[in-house]
UniProtKB/TrEMBL annotation, chain A:
It catalyses: ATP + protein L-histidine = ADP + protein N-phospho-L-histidine. Keywords: Hydrolase, Kinase, Membrane, Phosphoprotein, Transferase, Transmembrane, Transmembrane helix, Two-component regulatory system. Gene3D superfamilies: 1.10.287.130, Histidine kinase-like ATPase, C-terminal domain. SMART domains: HAMP, HATPase_c. This is histidine kinase. Residues 184-237 form the HAMP domain. It is an enzyme of class 2 (transferase). It comes from the Bacteria. The keyword Membrane applies. The lineage of its organism: Bacteria, Pseudomonadati, Pseudomonadota, Gammaproteobacteria, Pseudomonadales.
From TrEMBL, chain B:
The lineage of its organism: Bacteria, Pseudomonadati, Pseudomonadota, Gammaproteobacteria, Pseudomonadales. Residues 126-224 bind DNA. InterPro entries: CheY-like_superfamily, OmpR/PhoB-type_DNA-bd, Sig_transdc_resp-reg_C-effctor, Sig_transdc_resp-reg_receiver, WalR-like, WH-like_DNA-bd_sf. GO terms for biological process: regulation of DNA-templated transcription. This is Transcriptional regulatory protein CusR. The modification 4-aspartylphosphate is found at residue 52. Residues 126-224 form the OmpR/PhoB-type domain. The keyword DNA-binding applies. PROSITE patterns: OMPR_PHOB, RESPONSE_REGULATORY. The keyword Transmembrane helix does not apply. One of its GO terms (cellular component) is cytosol. It comes from the Bacteria. Gene3D superfamilies: 3.40.50.2300, 6.10.250.690, Winged helix-like DNA-binding domain superfamily/Winged helix DNA-binding domain.
Length: 465, 226
């Protein structure tokens, strides 16, 4: 199963989509206005060029002697500040017109040229502007320059630029606000769904994902998950009722079998018959023990069983478990040491079940540690939690098996020589899970033996649920 | 002769219970339904009742709580096929005196019923127990044998106390675990054997001392030597 890193913050797919859309929209707007600008400026340029050529053509036909009068007369009709002219003597000195200076960068070819820096005009606004200009040399050597201002094109460009800015800001600002909203609200909803699924994973199978009235894609998904949960719950219920049915159906015949064998045992029998009967009785006994164990794990896996939960002092329980098992360790020449702190924190749970878990852990530790071995039962306090440790220096559990040993009926390869029902650790796991504690298996000191850790949160008056 | 009422809907189980009770000197009466059982129990005349937790007509809990509300204090041993661990708590809370889960052993059932009967006869004002040449002081927590002190650990004291209260009677391992340690699960046979073994060693140095016998597959009996 793959899972994403937990600490990274979740992002919204809606905000990503709107981000893409904004970038696309801006790019499209810029392209559109660019084309518009280019088309308009091209058109205006052509108009300016043609007007200049027309004027040049007209003055070409005018005699040099009449030129000054004609220029003054016809240019009076032209738009001031847009159209301009200048007449210069062959040596470049100004003769007439608004244009005061001859520019060297204007080629002497009778063609229209676009000048970026423009020409100086004798007008109050002395700034140089871009312009279209034409230089025509007269027959008498005079130089006539006709010009048309290119500023109108820049003005059009400015207008288009402004339009673009307005358009972008008007669409981007609501877009950004929308992005924030789209980022936060669906994420909040998804977070609620996440909390809900966590609760379901922790065993509250009756819980369902919340649905909104919007009937959107999240609801569609949540609804699908809920349908799935209904189905899973029903299946689990069926499995449980089948198991309960089998258990119930087996209880009565097993009780009868045992009782019949017992009745038989009370009769006067031949020696060899008696022996076989005893064996049969012992077998039925061992079936019963396993069967009871299985039923017990099944019961404990039902998370709702919490009616006997109360706060209790955990260290006293460790002490009792140590007293209970010390004689057995001594019989096997093992040392069972107890290491608990002097203060006595309380944890919330069923002390009887936890004692059962400790009994199973110590029983396993003693069983799987050879004669003369060491077993430690430790209780320690760390960060508002009590940590119970059972450490032995026995055979240990191979790393590959560690996850399996808490399953029902699992037994490692090496443990076949020892008797046991293989239920011990799965029972412990079920008890730990019922309490909401955590169970960890590690190798013991210097990789020998087993170290079992149970992490129990300390009881505080507010933390009861 | 003690008189027992068996309320049990399964005929085979009922026959087994009745046969086993008869072998241990009980005369018993079988009621197959909750209604009959309740009527017989109210009519009285029984020293103990075994009660199935699940009957077709009545819930075992209802029967026992009805009896208690009528002031009938006959000891009730509840027998249940219900797997839930909480059922035990519910059964005892309703007024049952002991609780046994199916499948159970006949030995266990009789031993528990015996214990229930003796419990009604126990004298709480008696500050010491005696068995053979052993004398256990319940106030001073001291064991003496012919005026000689024997040192006991707290667990050993509790064990011996339990065994001496039931001297001459069978005590099963689960009964000991419940009585001495106060827990109701099966701790496995070995560990109780170890504790009994240690206590036995302390008692066996004197040849006239009572002895703890192990009854194979059943439990222990503290018996005086004859």
């Amino acid at each position: 199963m793959s899972s994403l890193p937990k600490n990274e913050e979740w992002r919204s797919s809606g905000s990503r989509l709107i981000g893409f859309y904004a970038v696309f929209f801006v790019a499209w707007g810029a392209l559109f206005t660019g084309v518009l600008y280019w088309e308009i400026s091209h058109y205006l340029g052509t108009v300016a060029e043609r007007t200049l050529l027309q004027r040049a053509h007209y003055y070409q036909k005018v005699d040099d002697s009449n030129l000054l009068a004609e220029l003054a007369a016809s240019e009076a009709y032209s738009t001031p500040g847009i159209d301009a002219y200048g007449l210069f003597a062959p040596d470049g000195t100004h003769v007439a017109g608004d244009l005061l200076k001859l520019r060297s960068n204007l080629p002497d070819d009778g063609q229209v040229h676009y000048l970026e820096r423009g020409l100086s005009i004798a007008l109050p606004s002395t700034e140089t502007r871009s312009s279209y200009a034409l230089l025509a040399r007269r027959a008498d050597g005079h130089i006539l320059i006709l010009a048309r201002d290119g500023g109108s094109i820049s003005a059009v460009g400015g207008i288009i630029e402004q339009a673009l800015m307005w358009g972008l800001s008007l669409s981007l600002i609501p877009g950004l606000i929308g992005w924030r909203l789209l980022r936060r609200r669906p994420l909040r909803r998804v977070k609620r769904l996440q909390l809900c699924t966590e609760s379901i994973v922790s065993g509250n199978l009756a819980e369902r994902l919340p649905l909104s009235t919007r009937r959107d894609e999240l609801d569609m998904l949540a609804n699908a998950v809920n349908t799935m949960l209904d189905h899973i719950e029903q299946l689990m219920h069926e499995v449980k009722s089948v198991c309960d049915g089998i258990a119930h159906d087996l209880r009565t015949p097993l009780t009868r079998l045992r009782a019949r064998l017992y009745q038989l045992q009370q009769l006067p029998l031949a020696r060899e018959h008696k022996q076989t009967l005893n064996q049969a009785f012992e077998e039925s006994e061992s079936i019963m023990v396993r069967f009871q164990g299985l039923l017990r794990v099944a019961e404990l896996e039902d998370i709702r069983r919490r009616c006997a939960f109360a706060p209790f002092p955990i260290m006293a329980l460790l002490k009792q478990a140590h007293e209970f098992y010390e004689p057995m360790a001594l019989d096997r020449a093992q040392t069972l040491s107890l290491d608990i702190p002097s203060d006595c924190p309380r944890v919330y749970g069923d002390s009887s079940l936890l004692f059962e878990a400790l009994v199973n852990l110590l029983d396993n530790a003693i069983k799987f540690t050879p004669q003369g071995g060491h077993i430690q039962l430790r209780g320690s306090i760390k960060d508002a939690a009590v940590i119970i440790e059972v450490v032995d220096d026995g055979a240990g559990i191979p790393e590959a098996d560690r996850r399996h040993v808490i399953r029902r009926l699992y037994r490692g390869e090496g443990s076949q020589i020892n008797p046991g029902h293989g239920l011990g650790l799965s029972l412990v796991a079920a008890i730990v899970k019922l309490h909401g504690y955590t169970l960890d298996l590690h190798p013991g000191a210097s990789d020998r033996g087993t170290r079992v850790l149970i992490h129990c949160p300390m009881f505080s008056a507010q933390a009861t649920d | 002769m003690s008189n027992a009422l068996v309320i049990e809907d399964d005929q085979v189980t009922a026959e087994i219970i009745v046969a086993e009770l008869q072998r241990h000197g009980f005369s018993s009466k079988w009621a197959a339904t909750g209604r009959d059982g309740l009527a017989l129990a109210i009519a009285g005349g029984y020293d103990a009742i075994t009660l199935d937790r699940m009957l077709p007509d009545f819930d075992g809990l209802t029967i026992v709580s009805t009896l208690r509300s009528l002031g009938i204090q006959t000891p009730v041993l509840m027998i249940s096929a219900l797997s839930d661990v909480d059922e035990r708590v519910l059964g005892l809370r309703a007024g049952g005196d002991d609780y046994l889960t199916k499948p159970f052993s006949a030995v266990e059932m009789v031993a528990r019923l015996d214990a229930l009967l003796r419990r009604t006869a126990a004298d709480p004002s008696n500050p010491h127990l005696s068995c053979g040449n052993l004398r256990l002081d319940l106030v001073e927590h001291k064991l003496t044998r012919n005026d000689e002190d024997i040192q006991l650990l707290p667990t050993e004291f509790k064990l011996l106390n339990f065994l001496m209260r039931s001297a001459g009677q069978l005590v099963t391992r689960t009964m000991l675990f419940e009585g001495v340690w106060g827990y109701h699960f099966d701790p496995g046979t070995n560990i109780i054997d170890v504790h009994i073994g240690r206590l036995r060693k302390k008692l066996e140095s004197d040849k006239d001392s009572p002895v703890i016998h192990t009854i194979r597959g059943a439990g222990y009996v503290l018996a005086t030597k004859k």
